[in-house]
Amino acid sequence: MPGRNFLFVPGPTNIPERIRRAMDVPLEDHRAGDFPAFVLPLLEDLKKIFQTRDGHVFIFAASGTGGWEAAITNTLSPGDKVLQARFGQFSHLWAELCRRLGMQVELVETPWGEGVPLDRYAEILAADSAHAIKMVLVTHNETATGVTSDLAGVRRVLDDLGHPALLAVDGVSAIGSIDFRMDEWGVDLAVSGSQKGLMLPTGLGLVGASRKALDATQRARCPRSYFDFGDMLRMNADGWFPYTPAVTLLHGLRASIDMLLEEGLPQVFARHARYAEAVRKAVAAWALELCARDPKWYSNTVSAVVVPQGIDAGAVVGNAYRRYNLSLGGGLGEVAGKVFRIGHLGDLNELMILSALAGTEMALRDSGIGVEPGSGVGAASEFLRETCTA
20 to 30 A Cα–Cα from 268, which one of 64, 124, 141, 390? Predict the structure, then answer.
């Protein structure tokens, strides 16, 4: 099919030309004497994206799943107890990873379409007088359902109870796109990946660790080698890595950080919020509903749209790709076949959003969902026009 693919899944996202060019470099010697002059400022500036001064951000050649494993194995021991709310495919998978690593998982089953239930977390943690729970897990932005949880609220619960558990956060589809304040919100472990808000190819697993988390590594007894924080810290201190890093991706990461800091993180977050609201205006104009059950849960990086009963959401995704070269996300886990997902994060502008909505509108009609032609695009375009500040 002529033209380009329109990529509107919630990751991987579009790669800006500036980042493409930054990665178009010859391979180089990662043991050369001048390599630390590149690495040390990179590590320092990456902390600004996580909004931490005191923590350290590790860069692994991995995906976000590798980041999950690094966070767990460096700070916990087999048999330790963790608390996790399950309300989407990725919160489910992180809990399963903990189980495979030998942790006891106290799972709080939560309706898919809601976020972390602060009241249940408070009840469970208040009853844990012996502090058997060593870690509280939070999937900040659940891409399967388009739900963002109140991360600051979880920190308040822990602080109000004086509970010492580590706070570990899956920020894969949050960091670099929606407000995330590692130090201010007392996040001890923050996991991200390169292929979403950082606008890079898949291949980097990023883990921010607080001083408290780094201290916990001295007690952790999980086997680890490749993901060992200690090895990384010793080498990173002088601008090196304990093994061959993904140097080409590091050059892309340098450009990504520069772009985000030049725009300013508040402006990045506001841009994502505005485009997300434009998508929500379109969904409402189509007379469809979001999987997120309340506006307080709405995600600014992905919208999961519920199709009418009797319609297979997979048909919408298939028609969009086959007929219009538009990539939308399918439903996962318990919402498979019930929702399709529009990713709206990373390198985007108004017309890119409108192109995705136009293609989605056609695919909806092709799939037997009788939306009014132009209704969603019209609602979104009016909102974007009215809120344009240029």
Answer: 64
